[in-house]
Every structure is written in structure tokens, then in C-alpha cells.
Amino acid sequence: MEGGENENGGKKRGCGCSKQDFLPEESFQSCRSYLNALCNTKSRLRDRLLARSADHMELHEIRGRSQHEMKKRLNWWDIIWFGIGAVMGSGIFVLTGEAARNHSGPAVVVSYLISGMTALLSVLCYTEFCVELPVGGGSFTYLRVELGDFVAYIAAGNILFEYVVAGASVARSWTSYLATLFNHDPNSFRFHASSFPEDYSHLDPIAAVVSLLICIAACMSTKGSSRFNSIATIVHLLVLLFILIVGLTKANPQHFSNFAPNGIRGILKASSILFFAYVGFDGVATLGEEVKNPGRDIPIGLIGSMLIIILLYCLLSATLILIQPYYQIDVNAPFTLAFQAIGLKWAKYIVALGALKGMTTVLLANILGQARYFTHIGRTHLAPPFLATINEKTRTPVNATVVMTLLNSIVGFFTSLDVLANLLSLTTLLIFSLVALALLVRRYYVGGETTSSNRNKLILFLMLMIGSSIATAVYWAIGKNGWIGYAVTVPIWFIATLGLNLMVKEAKKPKLWGVPLVPWIPSASFATNVFIMASVDGASYVRFGIWTLLLLVYYVFIALHASYDAAKETTDTTSAATATCLEDGGASQLHH
Predict the structure, then answer these.
(1) What is the spatial distance between Cα 153 and Cα 141, in angstroms, rounded to a whole number?
(2) Dihedral angle over CA of 335, 336, 337, 338, nearest 10
(3) Is residue 9 part of a domain?
(4) List of residues 6+ apart from 512 with CB closer than 8 A
(5) 3-class DSSP assignment, residue 51
(6) Where are the strands (E) in 178-325, listed by range?
(7) What residue range is the signal peptide (predicted)?
(8) pLDDT band of 294, cuts 50, 70, 90
(9) Per-residue confidence at 11, pLDDT binned at 50, 70, 90?
(10) The whole model's pTM is what?
(11) Which are the contacts of 41, defined by CB distance < 8 A and separation ≥ 6?
(12) What's 167's domain CATH number?
């Protein structure tokens, strides 16, 4: 109510929000307390920089800050459909043309298989964490527990930015494909504001409306969103099945005769491009908090969906080559123009419909993942804690969902696809690499239990693994065609991983489901993700640096002190509860 008071006695604004919703911590209660906090920045940095959370803290104390719990309504069937819906958007319709024509030729099928297996390695790492830590924060939680508060904050801040860019990009692409269905130029469905800069002058209300409709669905019910996602994904799969059947009726096996025109380098270069067609499963991992039986449902859902996607991508790319020679494939609209070349102009409408359905489910999975990331970050007070609120009625993170949707809609409304495409960064690959590294730390290091000798050997082998992986990627990036560099870096990676396997005792076994062949699979996941990072353009590294610098400014002046106070409060509460239990136990013994 206007001019009303909150439960702490503070005046609320007309919108019903007060300062306590954004900065309730002790350090922000007055100018004097904030200045005192700033004076203690150095000591607080020492305290929080490498501070690691614990499993029980994330599963109970931190999650409890949302006041209400999300409903556990999802099973393995839901996760499979969410996995397919989150990953299979318009990527197959866009990336295949560039990869096949400019790099791999008919071997694009092999490129899809290689990039798919690389993605599967990351899926395996995510699955173990998601089973052991089924909370809404996804990779933010995993990194916070194993690599510390600061690494998790920087990683999460960057991936949230990329989520916004990806959501806005898909929303604008939705408008473009809708225009295709009606035989219109994409910008004819947008308003031109001549007074704005060119890259921001084509205003896209359809993108904003679609994002808002997806937001409403995501806020109302996760199970309802799952049903909608399942139906839309089934329609998408039917369109892909149509492409396969109709395409194979026009197949010409001779198109595979010159299988790899650019050799192994062309195949690997195409793999690095096509890897981004598999991105999206990390958002599905944030749904772990709402899964009924994490130990069974998450492995079946995440791994099963990725295997299905790999198979479909390989079949679709093979069909495209069978329809049209690789050197005639259009880079921008490969499937549409391939059907047109064999006299099936009407098929472009089916392809556009499939892309629309795919992008709708990607938008839904995107906003679900965004909201749950932000919710858990709010629980730790690294972001304003009002974002951590779980709605009592719907049991969904409404606040975080609405905030992220507004950001998506604003960016998508103004910003052209060209600008958004240039903002796509290396953050996803960085997160995948860090999660693989965190899994190795989780398996081989437990504070207070691992001996100093094993800890030092672990650090040595990890440094060798990281250094050799980066060196291999750099050698590839600078375009050396020789093998001498690889003959040095790859054996070092192998020896480091073998040493970790043979010389360091595994400190922790997974309770419910674990990645097989540790340390080989997480080590290979780290190396392949770093290798693909070498193909990312320089502008993405610049963007990453600028955005990370902004995150550091916010961390030093706000997030550090908020999270420090929240951690101190949790520690005090836990100590008080322990003392009370001990007193009650002692009193009980005296009584007896």
C-alpha cells in the first residue's frame, strides 16, 4: 500500500518495494556502516575470494532463504523434452550451411558427431553435479562449492549476460522466420525509427510480446511449461522427420564422393562452429531442484536428450548433403534453398514452421534457466535477495523470471541481429571448462581430509593439464599446419591426466550417480572446450574483458559486502543452533 510499512517498520515505496528488498545486509544500513565495510574491503576479499561453500549449505541453508520451496513435479520424461527443446532451436538450420560449404564439405556429418561427443562430455560432468546438488543455481552452485565464491560469481555474471543476448537474439529471429512464412522481408514486421542509430532503429514489438508470453507461461507453472514444451518439441521433431523423409526421396549418393575437401583441419574447424548447435543443456541443469528423483531422472533426461540430438543432427546434415552438393549449399538458408533447388519451393514454409517451434522452446528453456540461475545467486546475496523469492502460490521464481524477461525484451526490441550475433561470446565454453575442472577438484580434494602431499600433486597435475590444453588451443589458433607442437602438448596432457589417475587418491565418491572413467572424461572435456575456445573471434574476448571489469566493480562495492554479511549471518545462526543443541543435550543428561 502507498505509504505503508514493511514488517521491519521501514517505509515502502508505491511499488511495494523497499531498500530492504535490495540491500538488507548490515553493511548497507547507514552511510557509516557502508564506509566501514569499504574500509574492510581488503580483509573481506581475503575471506571471500577462495571461500568454498558446502553441499549441505547449498541444499538446506542457502535454499531456505527463498522462504518457499519449488515444487518437485518433473520426471525423466520432462527432462528429456526440456533437453531437446532447449538445444534444438534454429542452429541446425543456420550453422550447417557455413560449416559444410566453407569448411568440412560432406564430412559435416563427422563434424556434427565430433562436436556432439564434445558436448556429451560436458553433459556427463553436469549430470554428476546436478544429481549431487539438485538446486536452482546450476553451474553457479557447482563452481561455488568447488572453486569458490569469486570464480562462481564471475562465471555466473558472464553467463547471465549471454543468456540475455541469446534470448534477445532468438526472439528477433522468431520475427524473421514469421515474416518468411508470410513471404515478407523480416524488417517489414518491425517499425523503423529513423532517429535511432541504424543498428537499433528497427524496433521489434513481436520479439518483446513473444518473450512476455513465454514469461507468463514460465511464471504460472513449471509442469505446465513442461507440457507446452513437450507438445512444441514434438511438432518440431515431426518437421525434422518430414525433412528427412522428403529429402531422402531426392538423395544422390554421389554428393559424398569428395568427402573431406579440406582435410582434418576443415572437419575440426566445422566442429568448432557446430558445437554451438548443442548449447542449451546447461540451463536444463538448473531444473534439478524441481525433479522428483534426481538420482534416476537427471541422468536419463540429460544424457538421453543429448544422444537423441546427436543422432538427429547427423541424420539431418547427411540428408542435406544427399540433396545438394556441398559447394552449392547456401550459407544463410541451407535447407530452404536446398529444397527449392530440387523443385520443392513450398518446403521452405515447413522449414520456417519447424524453426519457429524450435525457437519457441529454446526461449522457454532460456528463461527458465535464467530465472533459476538468478534465484540462487540472489540466495547468496551476490545479487539483490528479492530475486530469490519463490512465489507461495505457483512455487516458481516469479521475481527473477520477470526481471530477466524485461531485460530480454528491452534488448530484443531495439538491437539488430547483427549486433547480437557479435556479442555471442566464449562464456559458455569457459563455464563448461570450469565445471569439468570443478569435478576433478570435487573427486580428488576434500578440505581437512586430503593430505598435503596429495593436494600438492593434484595442483601440479591440474596445472600441467590446464597449461597443455591452452598451449594446444593456441597452436591451433595461430594456424600452424605442422605436428611438432601437438607432439609436445598432447603427451603432456596425457601424462598429467594419467598421473592424476595413478598417483592421487580419490577423496570423494558420488553417492547416487557418477561420471565414469574419472579423471579421463572431465580432463578430456576441459581440453576440448578450451580447444574450441581458440576458434572464438577476438571481439568476444574484448566483450568478455569489458563485462568482467564491470562485474568486478559491482563485486568490490556491493556484492562482496552483501555476501560477506550473509555468510557471517549464516555462520552465526548455525553456531547458535549448535550451541542450543549441545545445551539441550547436556540438560537432558543431567535430568536423567
Answers:
(1) 10
(2) 40
(3) no
(4) 131, 132, 294, 295
(5) coil
(6) 191-192, 202-203
(7) none
(8) very high
(9) very low
(10) 0.87
(11) 556, 560, 561
(12) 1.20.1740.10
